[in-house]
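User: Can you model how D-malate sits in this protein?
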Amino acid sequence: MARINDNFLKLKAGYLFPEIGRRVAAYTEANADKASTLIRCGIGDVTEALPKAVQEAMHKAVDELGCRDTFRGYGPEQGYGFLREAIADNAFAGLDISADDIFVSDGSKCDTGNILDIFGKGNTIAVTDPVYPVYVDTNVMIGNTGEGDENGRYEGLVYLACTAENDFVPAIPKEKVDIIYLCYPNNPTGASATREQLQAWVDYALKNDAIILYDAAYEAFIQDADVPKSIYEIEGAKECALEFRSFSKNGGFTGVRCGYIVIPDSVFGSTATGEKISIKQLWSRRTSTKFNGASYPVQRGAEAVFSDAGKAEVAALVEHYMGNAALLRTACTELGLKVFGGENAPYVWVACPAGLSSWDMFDKMLSEANVVITPGSGFGAAGEGYFRISAFNSRANVEEVCKRLKALL
Ligand code: MLT
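Assistant: Here's the modeled complex, given as structure tokens:
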């Protein structure tokens, strides 16, 4: 019989969002009369239509593929030059990031998981707690951890607590770690990191020969001019950080799928014998072997995000979702709940009413308010006692959620 990868058996039964989906499906089956008025603020999935500029670019690209003279087959594995250049010129203007540093993919979820292919065994890996579950589960799958405990914490990972006391930005660890996952603006807490906080992390990474895996999927939602949008705004980051970006949340690409990793030439890892190896060279090799590039129409659509019309439409989408976040923040604050996030990120992170655990609150919201939220403990032990409300929704639905919250509490 074929041997399986036993590491998969260490995983908790279900990935958080499918698990929530299963519970919601069971609830709607038992309460069919409520299904049509259920409001989903669980998974951070966009709801508004793709920008017109994106639609037009994708239509045009499909027409090109439909004509022999303009047809294209396999594209470059790392992404088309037109998109890599548009990203470098627009998303990293003035930061000395070149098109050649950018690797286009079918989304950040895949990228943050797949990046582990190029790192060896024996690294000490740090994740925040709470955390986007993909970082943890992919480390479990590849064998970088031992077993999980009853809180879902895996032996072998260093957990960096993100609490209200540290504004959900972890303290620099005393021990030496080799790889650190940071996500700002943060999923799930909605917190943002200041320049000084990120500088401290970059300084730590440089001192310890560590690599920061910086997930900036939510950078478009930053409202505060002082909050860095990219890790490369921080001195020294080009020597120690990779940045993950996505078109999912700004351009509405959760269903279209497109993201990218930035890997400067100056980030290195080492072999077992201490030889320095370029991370970019390894990722490029990995990409050409395992990936044939994101599809041409999708890359044309992503390019259009950076057109004048695209930028204006993305700005309007961000304004819409951040308007939702402000309403949710206000409603929860008025109820006397402790509210975090939602100012530079589309997630509002709320302390549960006294006496309720995260899953209690999830059940209460589902069964009594007909609203899906995400239980904080699903993101890690330190998320217990919190719940996350996603601001990705229509304005009408968010207004209704605010009403239902007020009626419920
Ligand atoms: C979330 O709800 O945390 C995100 O939508 C998940 C994701 O982007 O994969």
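A couple of observations from the model: The longest helix spans residues 308-334. The chain has two domains: 6-49+309-408, 55-307.
User: Helpful, thanks.
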